[in-house]
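Follow-up to my post from last week.
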Amino acid sequence: MADIVSVAEARRADSVGREVVVQGWVRTRRDSKAGFSFIEVNDGSCFGNIQIIAEAALPNYESEIKRLSPGCCVGVTGLVKASPGKGQATEIQAAVVVVHGLADVKTYPLQKKGHSFEFLRTIAHLRPRTNTFGAVARVRNRACNSIHQFFQERGFLYVHTPIITASDCEGAGAMFQVTALDLAADKERGTKGEKGEKGVKGAGIDFSKDFFNRPAYLTVSGQLEAETFACALSKTYTFGPTFRAENSNTPRHLAEFWMVEPEAAFFDLQDDMELAEGLLKRIFRDVLQECPEDMQFFNQRIDKTVIETLEHIVESEFLRVSYSDAIDILRKSGQRFEFPTAWGNDLQVEHERFLTETHFRRPVILYDYPREIKPFYMRVNDDGRTVRAMDVLVPKVGEIVGGSQREERLDLLERRMREQGLDPESYWWYLDLRRFGTVPHSGFGLGLERAIQFVTGMSNIRDVIPFPRTPGNAEF
RNA sequence: UCCCCGAUAGCUCAAUUGGUAGAGCGAGCGGCUGUUAACCGCUAGGUCCAAGGUUCGAGUCCUUGUCGGGGAGCCA
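User reply:
Got it. Predicted complex:
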């Protein structure tokens, strides 16, 4: 009886001699006048295809097999043999070829040739069938697995923070509002009655009658909620989707993206940096080891330096440079920058690129930023002018991790909130963590897609998430 | 949101100073072949993004819009 096996398994040399069934989608078919056809089948289990030898003697050879084209779905029963040709260790001599579904070659959008990523984005439902997007999917899966393993092995608890949140002031950018109200109907009412309020946000809408009796939003970060669990269970992390309604149109931004956010009690900024460095190295090492074929592909077709870069990073220490030292380096560099490099200004992309790509040529962790340019929850240093923030910057992608030691002192935290125009009242539960058994703690956020971009060398973030959400784009 | 660039065959792209639309790949047919981004020959295939405008004449110049790319801001 034939075993149902993956293409990955059938490709292994030790499968020679086995009677197997493989199932997948046709990539190409080449006919030989010697009386048979080569069919390449891929099922996503690995980068490579399995080559099927289909003899003309098969009963459905003329009726079906010779009509097979890219995109058709087949199941093949046959004997795995050592392949005499170049390019593959094994092939399958087909005894039975079942055609599950044909794909009309005139209308099927994917061809044997390479397509531009811009075009593939317009057929996001079919692009997983391409080499590149299959490889991205496998690498992304591997990275997610590594993230969980990394934290689980270190005793971090996976906490599910809410997707819908009522706190509209997490300070990480514009939010998507969530409502169960019929906004179209409410808008009509509003414009009929009070003409003056047209155009005002929420005009004519009474959110106290909404589902949550208040305005609600999609989360921009699980950090504040994760802190509540860190202040009880010590080491925690969240890993889930986050949403930003910013009108960002860049190859590094998405409206919906996945973020890893560890939050750990008794961790200071040093511990936080070590944790971030360890996590990134773990992801890189695992992907290199576990996805060699996919990485080889990225190295050949996408970015000829990715493997070398990742190997180098895994072996070397991330540099740690204070914000103040970074400003000194930039000022003394002799480089001309569009934006001034004065102490107190936030670093611009050009500055980050100079540091990671020209000056240090590797990942850098910057820390101790000016308090004015960082959010309220970051712990103020003894100098009073900096906070314990840290950003991990990598070449090309830029900021991949942003984190900090959190302010655990109630009075200072409240003062910082008022400084930034926030009302401590609305953060009563967050402040309770400092009121009752406060603890030094730290955490960071890792943008999953940016990490995948860095690992694969893919230049546009829209091509490392299955279904990208960006301004004006949610077709699939 | 701002700046720059682009949109022509199914895909990737050409088209001179404004003068009747081209190639490669893909597709169809034929040839050849243990092939592997196969190869060789022939054939078909176009609302030149949309709407206005300038002109005897617009793929080409102008305006507006839509979509895409690059850069910037916001950030992860």
